[in-house]
Amino acid sequence: MRDVVILGSTGSIGTQALDLVRANPDRFRVVGLTAGGGNPALFEQQVAEFAPAFYGLGEDASIEAAQRPADVVLNGITGAVGLRPTLAALDAGTMLALANKESLIIGGPLVKERAKPGQIVPVDSEHSAIAQSLRGGSPAEVRRLVLTASGGPFRGRTRDDLAQVTPEQALAHPNFAMGRVITTNSATLVNKGLEVIEAHLLFDIPFERIDVVVHPQQMIHSMVEFIDGAVVAQIGLPTMLVPIAMGMAWPERVPNAEAPVDWTRASDWRFEPVDDAAFPAIALAREAGARGLTAPAVYNAANEVCVDAFHEGRLPFPGIVDVIADVVTRHDVPSTQSLTLDDVLAADAWAREAAATRIAAIAAS
Ligand SMILES: NC(=O)C1=CN([C@@H]2O[C@H](COP(=O)(O)OP(=O)(O)OC[C@H]3O[C@@H](n4cnc5c(N)ncnc54)[C@H](OP(=O)(O)O)[C@@H]3O)[C@@H](O)[C@H]2O)C=CC1
Ligand SMILES: CC(=O)[C@@H](O)[C@H](O)COP(=O)(O)O
Ligand SMILES: [Mn+2]
């Protein structure tokens, strides 16, 4: 039996985690639940159903929940606000099933130095796929990581086409039902940019050995190329049930977490290169990741502000990555070898302010 704390229980990741708990009452027990307060009726219902020892709303409640005795903390919060709960779980010595990629990306070395070997289990589907593909192997055998990308709802469009797209269109992800921020990030390919940084941090592979290939069907969740030329991929239906189940049960697999692929049905799987001219977000993330320290936090914070502005009709879709580029370019990475939480929070705050100023200037022009 695993005692599980679920942060962000009302979201896409959180509700699917609770579905897995419901389906596996002998395997998982919910001991903590937190959410942001945007859906109080659902949260109340979850608390009534799972009767966790601790529950609460907001960042402080999530930090406290992450410090409680448990076997695993699943961080399913969206955005940079997930950083302190991630650090709290790591400091408590609890296994961290990490969906909240932002906390690792913005915390970078700060998060890594707080984590014991194997303490972070990636839940992001691509990174779960890579972790599964690497099991039992030696890091020296790895030549490249290959992240798959859906290409988002605007795959195949030119930069000019993108000027008129609407928030409703951006939220029509081809395969996954996810929260608003990550779905928008999939449309801009910021999600894949963040995931390149996430892969670099999780697996200690240099950026030049992390590739991205567009695979619209998302049946291959990512791959590892080994030094002998062999490629190991993790394949499955495009849902989050296996990655979440693996996150909560690692290193075990949860029987029947998801239906297997039906190989009796004819299907075509396509692969194509990323169109970096129409979607510059990945190249920009590589630059921010290579600069390191506070640069990824700036990339992420500017993006969070831009996503809100796009959905509120204050910024056209291509403006999202334009503003991120402007803010990241103007950011001075501190001249320090190490990173503190204050450095990250200061960079995050600076980037939010800089992005808001730039968005207002664009709107006024
Ligand atoms: N959904 C998916 O399939 C995937 C998601 N991820 C990652 O997982 C994370 C969650 O994504 P997703 O589930 O889609 O997002 P959602 O927007 O669906 O859910 C976010 C959750 O975070 C909660 N939350 C927001 N702010 C706070 C806060 N200050 N304190 C505590 N809880 C808060 C929300 O609560 P409420 O709404 O009740 O206020 C909600 O429960 C993101 O980092 C995303 O990138 C990664 C891979 C796949
Ligand atoms: C399910 C998951 O992990 C998401 O990050 C998803 O992969 C988004 O896919 P794209 O960003 O490739 O559209
Ligand atoms: Mn992903």
Automatic annotation (TrEMBL):
- Organism phylogeny: Bacteria, Bacillati, Actinomycetota, Actinomycetes, Propionibacteriales
**Classification via Pfam families:** DXP_redisom_C (PF08436), DXP_reductoisom (PF02670), DXPR_C (PF13288)
- Which GO BP terms sit in this record? isopentenyl diphosphate biosynthetic process, methylerythritol 4-phosphate pathway involved in terpenoid biosynthetic process
- Name of this protein: 1-deoxy-D-xylulose 5-phosphate reductoisomerase
**Which cofactors, if any, are listed as required?**
Mg(2+); Mn(2+)
Per the record, the domain of life is Bacteria
> For 1-deoxy-D-xylulose 5-phosphate, which residues are the binding ones?
101, 125-126, 150, 173, 186, 191-192, 195
Q: What is its EC number?
A: 1.1.1.267
According to the entry, every stretch annotated as the 1-deoxy-D-xylulose 5-phosphate reductoisomerase C-terminal domain falls at 120-203
Give the species this sequence originates from. Nocardioides thalensis
Task: Name the job this protein performs.
Answer: Catalyzes the NADPH-dependent rearrangement and reduction of 1-deoxy-D-xylulose-5-phosphate (DXP) to 2-C-methyl-D-erythritol 4-phosphate (MEP).
